[in-house]
Design goal:
The complex is a heterotrimer of chains A (478), B (343) and C (281). By secondary structure, chain A is mainly alpha-helical. Chain A is elongated and about 85 Å long. Chain C folds into two domains: 185 residues, Rossmann fold (3-Layer(aba) Sandwich), CATH 3.40.50; 66 residues, no CATH class. In chain C, helix 4 links the parallel strand 4 and strand 5.
């Protein structure tokens, strides 16, 4: 071989020829010798204690949290505690924020608009539409998230969450998913967008996609208030007052559990059909427990998770507020766009056991589930022409008194079926636009984003349709 | 409001129709898609492949064998051959025909596409081995040479497909290894599986069900005209000679270490017990295999079952100072030698 | 601490021991604008070794770091000043190896190979040294300019282990700095070590693993002879040979285009678009 004439081509040809000789399994031997060397060098540097410590704290904790007897109860207790702290803790600041942003600041801003001589429609668009929708989202969304995320992050930093995945993996394994999906799902109860981001810890492509697509079945923070309100008004009203609270709470929990069941069902279906060809590898490392650094965790989780999600929600709420206001205020022949839409969708809505108002509310409220009920109320006033409630066309509102609200809904033609199907549809419909955007950012694929968006809507339509028909059949027989 | 019963029935009918139309594999939509792909080009390429296959195995390709392999009538084959001759891919001489140089090069490119696609399915997707061949049969006709080269580069220019067949290079170079059929291996001679024939489908399915993979070592304990009994991958297998003939072997130069046949599955360790890894079976492949090796699960590694999850699956193992949860399906494919605690 | 005044990096072509070695052109294509930084530092490490914590401690940024393997998905960049020099630090994705079998591994590998950072800091979990050293050995196959950050020493103490960092430094042939980044322990020493390697005051002589399969040995030797004939100054001919045998198309391409040899004269125009994509991931 003459060194003068060696060219890259020569080298590549030699390599190709040699490759037939060395075969394809040398790679593994290569890794092996690397690891052997690594182990040898490590052994020389590390001195382990003479005797095994009689008491290994990590293992002791592990035995407890993964034991047959205590594993699940402990997990349920901790998660319940987190949820309880979130709900109980968020109540006060939520009310305070809504008093500040909605009841106090909004009239001031509107008054200010009038003072500086803004035309009524600019004033309405800005403060009744855009500001109100955004303020609504912030006051409902911010407090629970600011409590839930740090608590969850603390559990994560301590190292407990991987143990939860370990305990639950068997269940997820059976439907073709990953144990860590338990965590993205739990996160989804706080916020689906954050839940989708949380699927990053699943390093197997197939299982990660499953977790992303099914995250929407975890009833998020923005949907709990809808469920609770409708359950209280319609289902709690079925029984004597002293049982009302219990029954309505149970029906909300039943919806959440139904969501979990759906997410298992869909995971199972996906892993056997469209996702069959995606790579699947299971690995779950149980890191050593580390004492969490509380202040740092709170700081970073507020910055990283809460504010980022909130920011995205605000960006989507602003145009939504504008659209809601405009649709109720732009009229053709004395009828607003919203009313045209409602009339158009009403037959389909009624077939599904819902109504046109609800369908329109879900269309314009894609940006945030938080504004569905205020929009439904506003639109109901618009179509029924009820007087004395609400603050005008396009202005979302909520009523303090349950009786008033029930009366308004009944004027809008609502029945128990409407309420039940609304609860079902609130669980099974497209993710909010923040989540859709997040899914696109995480998967970088239009296909998976579309599937995650459309699959739950179709399921929602199918389920509500089926329930409505069976309901009417039974009602007809009775 | 429409009658609920009627609307339910209508919805039911629509669903049935949709299922009938879109049902995976057998739905009308998919059948239509498949028939659209069956173009003239596909027949031509399949014919070239068949003739090439015959040449390798020293068989004479005939119009009849072509008709059987392509599922066409004799007349159709005759006109197909005419076209191939006109394009100077096949030279016809009376009843005999053979590939021209350019025909052979063409055939090799299709084989390259087929085997690369199988490699791709095995390494980079989650499809099971039973689906590789069928999918590759479709895609071999659809990939352009540029796409094939890109795929090869992405996969690290593999030399063999997952069944052990060599993949021709872009220039058409191919090196076949000598191999002995499992049915004629002498008892007690160590050998390694280098090839598993993927046709016919039923025989391949049986070999897959036995858990045999390229790269496993084999030692025959009993070889008769009724059955072949042998050890491989830590289990004893029994196959009919006709089926065993579809497994190609290469003799191992030295006696393999005892561990190649003995050893237990990692799942046989109870909590607190430990062992030393002998190896990962070839059933663990692609991303999953690399992942386990990244985590340090390699021959010689000390591994201890530290605890089971409440349901027993997965279990957590201590490996090189880390605690790693593995599912039973994975741990079953890791072979270990049990060790006593303080050694 | 011995303060030494550094000669300002100059752009003369003459080889100089203390000049930055990073390849600004490649770095730009990898998505890193050097700006007015003097040196570039790559931060590599296994997932969940506190790599992000080290990054935050060095830069004063507060990226969230969780107790999860594989938290850092996107690449983070930051800067710091030390000993009159400005440093740009790039937090690479956490990987177990550099075999480029996943996108993360490829990003990390390409950055160290083509970007030629002045220093590659490998953060290792001192409590799981065996597993972590694998990556250190692989990084040392590619570059000589390595500093090992022996992190989580607080955990080592808690588990009553002792890790002999001097012995480790001797065995590996590169500086080893014990740290507990979560408490800021050892960060000053780490900065000093980075500075020493960047400025050329310390020159590592990394230990390189020798693989001993006869067939492979023969093949590698044959290739190394050819590669060294073509590129006499290549620091990692052996590694390149192994990658070629493994059918690594990217390395083959880089070899053809001369990017592995004299890195400052390679024609990068064609690869620019591709690298940009990786840089943006």
């Amino acid at each position: 071989m003459t060194t003068q004439t060696t060219t890259p081509e020569d080298i590549l040809q030699t390599a190709q020829a040699l490759r037939w000789e060395v075969g394809s399994d040398f790679h593994e031997h290569l890794m092996e010798s690397m690891y052997t060397e690594a182990a040898r060098i490590a052994d020389r540097a590390i001195t382990r204690p003479e005797k095994k410590p009689r008491f290994d704290l990590d293992r002791t904790i592990d035995r407890l949290v993964t034991s047959r007897a205590f594993g699940f109860p402990l997990m349920l207790a901790l998660l319940t505690l987190v949820f309880w702290l979130t709900i109980a803790g968020a109540n006060v600041p939520s009310r305070w924020l809504s008093w500040l942003l909605l009841d106090t600041l909004q009239p001031i801003l509107k008054g200010f608009g009038v003072t500086i001589g803004l035309p009524w429609w600019i004033n309405g668009l800005l403060f009744d539409g855009m500001y109100l929708a955004t303020a609504w989202v912030i006051s409902v969304m911010l407090p629970p998230m600011a409590i839930f995320f740090p608590l969850f992050t603390l559990l994560e930093d301590y190292g407990y969450l991987p143990r939860v995945a370990f305990n639950l993996d068997n269940m997820f394994q059976k439907v073709g998913a990953h144990g860590k999906q338990a965590l993205s799902m739990t996160m989804g109860f706080g916020c689906n967008a954050a839940g989708v981001v949380a699927t990053r810890v699943i390093d197997s492509p197939r299982e990660r996609l499953i977790a992303i697509i099914t995250n929407n079945f975890a009833l998020c923070n923005g949907r709990w208030p809808t469920q609770i309100l409708i359950a209280t008004l319609f289902i709690g009203g079925l029984v004597p007052a002293h049982l009302a609270g219990l029954l309505s709470a149970m029906s909300v929990v039943a919806i959440a559990v139904l969501g979990v069941l759906f997410s298992f069902l869909v995971s199972w279906g996906l892993s056997r059909t469209v996702l069959r060809g995606e790579v699947s590898t299971f690995s779950l490392e149980l890191p050593p427990y580390r004492p969490p650094r509380i202040w740092q965790t709170i700081y970073t989780s507020v910055i990283d998770r809460t504010l980022i999600v909130l920011w995205r929600a605000i960006i989507f709420a602003l145009p939504a507020g504008a659209i809601i206001w405009l649709s109720a205020n732009i009229t053709f022949g004395g009828i607003s766009i919203a009313e045209y839409l409602i009339n158009f969708l009403n037959p389909a809505g009624l077939l599904l056991g819902l109504n046109g108002v609800i369908l329109v509310a879900y269309i314009v409220a894609i940006p945030a589930n938080e504004i569905v009920i205020p929009t439904v109320l506003m639109l109901t006033v618009l179509v029924t022409g009820a007087s004395g409630v609400g603050a005008g066309a396009g202005v979302m509102f909520e009523l303090q008194s349950n009786a008033e609200m029930t009366a308004l809904f009944q004027a809008g033609g609502w029945t128990l079926l409407t309420a039940v199907n609304l609860m079902l549809f609130s669980l099974l419909h497209n993710p909010c636009s923040t989540t859709i955007y997040t899914i696109y950012k995480e998967t970088r694929s239009l296909k998976w984003t579309l599937i995650s968006t459309l699959l739950p809507v179709f399921m929602g339509l199918a389920v509500t349709f089926f329930v409505a028909q069976v309901w009417r059949l039974i009602a007809g027989v009775l | 409001m429409p009658n609920p019963l009627i609307s339910l029935l209508v919805a039911f009918a629509i669903t049935l129709l949709a299922v009938w139309f879109f049902r995976p594999e057998r739905g009308l939509f998919w059948r239509w898609q498949r028939s659209r792909r069956m173009t003239e080009r596909v027949f031509e390429e399949d014919a070239l492949k068949h003739i090439h296959q015959c040449e390798i195995h020293d068989r004479r390709p005939t119009v009849k064998s072509l008709a059987g392999s392509l599922n066409l009538s004799l007349d159709e084959i005759a006109s197909l051959l005419e076209k191939l001759e006109a394009r100077q891919l096949v030279a016809v001489d009376g009843a005999n025909f053979h590939l021209t140089a350019s025909g052979r090069a063409y055939a090799l490119q299709i084989i390259r596409a087929h085997r690369l696609w199988e490699r791709y399915l095995a390494d980079a997707t989650g499809f099971g081995e039973a689906e590789w061949h069928g999918q590759a049969d479709l895609y071999e006709h659809e990939l352009s040479p540029a796409e094939i080269s890109r795929l090869a580069a992405q996969l690290g220019n593999p030399t063999h497909d997952p069944h052990g067949d060599p993949i021709p290079t872009a220039r058409g170079e191919i090196v076949y290894r000598e191999r002995i059929p499992l049915s004629s291996l002498e008892a007690n001679k160590p050998a390694r599986i280098v090839h598993i024939e993927d046709e016919p489908e039923a025989v391949y399915a049986q070999l897959v069900a036995e858990g045999l993979h390229v790269g496993m070592t084999v030692r025959v304990t009993e070889s008769s005209s009724q059955r072949i009994r042998f050890w491989s991958g830590g289990d004893e297998h029994t196959l009919a000679p006709l089926i065993a003939a579809n497994v190609g072997l290469e003799l191992l130069p030295e006696e393999p270490r005892e561990q190649d046949q003995l050893g237990e599955r990692l799942t046989s360790l109870a909590p607190g017990e430990q062992g030393r890894v002998i190896g990962l079976t070839p059933r663990l492949r692609g991303a999953e295999r690399r992942r386990l090796m990244d985590l340090g699960i390699l021959p010689g590694t000390l591994i201890q079952n530290t605890m089971n999850s409440p349901s027993g699956n997965p279990a957590a193992y201590s490996v090189r100072g880390a605690l790693i949860a593995l599912r039973s399906a994975q741990a079953d494919q890791i072979r270990i030698l049990r060790e006593n605690d303080e050694s | 601490m011995t303060e030494q005044t550094l000669p300002k990096p100059t752009s003369t072509a003459a080889p100089c021991e203390t000049c930055p070695v990073h390849n600004a052109a490649h770095l730009l294509k990898l998505g890193v604008d050097m700006g007015d930084a003097d040196f570039v530092v790559a931060l590599a490490g296994n997932p969940n070794t506190g790599k992000s914590t080290v990054f935050n401690a060095l830069t004063g940024l507060r990226q969230h770091t969780g107790n999860w393997p594989g938290k850092t998905v996107t690449r983070a960049e930051g800067g710091f000043e030390y000993g009159n020099s400005r440093y740009k630090i790039v937090d690479l994705p956490g990987t177990y190896s550099l075999l480029a079998t996943s996108l993360d591994e490829e990003i990390a590998r390409d950055f160290i190979l083509f970007g030629q950072p002045d220093v590659s800091v490998v953060v290792v979990d001192a409590t799981r040294l065996e597993r972590n050293l694998n990556l250190v050995l692989q990084v040392m196959e590619i570059t000589n300019r390595v500093v090992v950050c022996l992190n989580l020493m607080d955990e080592v103490r808690r588990h009553k282990l002792t890790v002999d960092d001097r012995r480790l430094a001797r065995d590996l042939g590169v500086p080893v700095v014990p740290t507990a980044a979560r408490y800021g322990d050892g960060m000053d020493l780490l900065l000093q070590a980075i500075h020493d390697v960047a400025s050329g005051a310390t020159m590592g002589k990394p230990y390189r693993v020798r693989y001993e399969s006869p067939a492979l040995k023969h093949a590698v030797e044959q290739l190394v002879t050819q590669i060294e004939a073509l590129y006499p100054n290549l620091p990692n001919a052996r590694w390149v040979a192994l990658r070629l045998l493994d059918g690594d198309e990217k390395i083959a391409e880089a070899l053809q285009k001369g990017e592995l040899g004299d890195l400052s004269h390679g024609d990068l125009a064609q690869r620019a678009a591709q690298m940009q994509v990786i840089g943006n991931q």
